[in-house]
């Protein structure tokens, strides 16, 4: 499955969330990650995030797409990060 | 599913905050470690033991290629699937000449049958009918071989017939196959084939790493002190299906042009843009799925390679006799 993660986190915890997301997904913009992920890894990611957020103040959204081919991405302006497997 | 990554830019690869960081002159890129199955390095990259330790922990294998795109070697992390039984059985099947011959014959059979299938795809107006028949005869003669060397000779013979069809399968006047040349390849098509074959070898090796099998013990290719051989055996079966058809498509669609190559001492080498195109196409091909009749579901070519390894494991454990994949 393909997941897009966006988050709105208070400054003191934002770095922590960034680091967690970097392990699982590709960074595409400030506070936005996306990429192919297995169900199991996705559950792990959610657990790790849960441990690091303040539930009453922070917010993380997951857009879950069953198949990568269902997403078309268009970009205006700068392409900041990419999901390419070639570096 | 975790995917392989390919590195073409120079820089430093390191462990940073429990993930992988690639630092290049254009900036830093974080690579999501949980989603990486293997790393292929084509450029000049500095790395340290701390990274290798981290990659071992994450069971990520690293393949290195030199400036010309030749396979140099792999960082093969400590085996995480240990099975003394499988290794013993693997060795038994190597040391017992009858058992070894049986497996080696299956690899050649798979390779030749897939060669025939590939030829059939390009067989307009029956132009290859005669040669297909002659390769078929070779397949039938496999049973007469009583030594691995004879199998190799037969395979070599059939391959020559196969390669002699290439110039008619290629619909571009700029490319000529001639005959197979290596180290270094003497023309563009041979360069493409060498590069794509090494991509296939490492792909198979990475899949073997995820089984109990030891890649050092091969059956068609003699086991020696130098290198992994089981991946070469399995790759033979997939070469016509994955590599040869891909090259023919790329050349016939003119996606690969004569300007994608340059001369090196004694041969021809691919430019970086062409290598990237080949990696991209090969990766797409590996992710392509086909319907698997036995499993009754869609399976990618990469999984198919892993399943081939499982089939060999089953064979040596005398569970189910090995039959090569035909595509």
TrEMBL record, chain A:
Q: Which UniProt keywords apply?
A: Antiviral defense, Endonuclease, Hydrolase, Magnesium, Metal-binding, Nuclease
- Function recorded in the entry: CRISPR (clustered regularly interspaced short palindromic repeat), is an adaptive immune system that provides protection against mobile genetic elements (viruses, transposable elements and conjugative plasmids). CRISPR clusters contain sequences complementary to antecedent mobile elements and target invading nucleic acids. CRISPR clusters are transcribed and processed into CRISPR RNA (crRNA). Functions as a ssRNA-specific endoribonuclease. Involved in the integration of spacer DNA into the CRISPR cassette.
Q: Known EC number(s)?
A: 3.1.-.-
- Gene from which this protein is expressed: cas2
GO biological process terms on file: defense response to virus; maintenance of CRISPR repeat elements
Q: Which cofactor does it need?
A: Mg(2+)
Q: Which SUPFAM superfamilies match?
A: TTP0101/SSO1404-like
Q: Which family does it belong to?
A: Belongs to the CRISPR-associated endoribonuclease Cas2 protein family.
| Assembly information from the UniProt record | Homodimer, forms a heterotetramer with a Cas1 homodimer.
Put simply, this protein is called CRISPR-associated endoribonuclease Cas2
Q: Out of the domains of life, which is the source?
A: Bacteria
GO MF assignments: hydrolase activity; metal ion binding; RNA endonuclease activity
Q: Where does Mg(2+) bind?
A: 8
Its source organism is: Pseudothermotoga hypogea DSM 11164 = NBRC 106472
| CDD domains in UniProt | Cas2_I_II_III
TrEMBL record, chain B:
Coiled-coil parts of chain: none
EC code: 3.1.-.-
What is the required cofactor set for this protein?
Mg(2+); Mn(2+)
Q: Which UniProt keywords apply?
A: Antiviral defense, DNA-binding, Endonuclease, Hydrolase, Magnesium, Manganese, Metal-binding, Nuclease
Role noted for this protein: CRISPR (clustered regularly interspaced short palindromic repeat), is an adaptive immune system that provides protection against mobile genetic elements (viruses, transposable elements and conjugative plasmids). CRISPR clusters contain spacers, sequences complementary to antecedent mobile elements, and target invading nucleic acids. CRISPR clusters are transcribed and processed into CRISPR RNA (crRNA). Acts as a dsDNA endonuclease. Involved in the integration of spacer DNA into the CRISPR cassette.
A Pfam match is Cas_Cas1
Assembly description: Homodimer, forms a heterotetramer with a Cas2 homodimer.
Provide the protein name.
CRISPR-associated endonuclease Cas1
> From what organism does this protein derive?
Pseudothermotoga hypogea DSM 11164 = NBRC 106472
Per UniProt, what is the name of the gene that codes for the protein in this document? cas1
Q: Which family does it belong to?
A: Belongs to the CRISPR-associated endonuclease Cas1 family.
GO molecular function term, any single one: DNA endonuclease activity
**GO BP, sorted A to Z:** defense response to virus; maintenance of CRISPR repeat elements
Binding-site list for Mn(2+): 155, 221, 236
CDD domains on file = Cas1_I-B (cd09722)
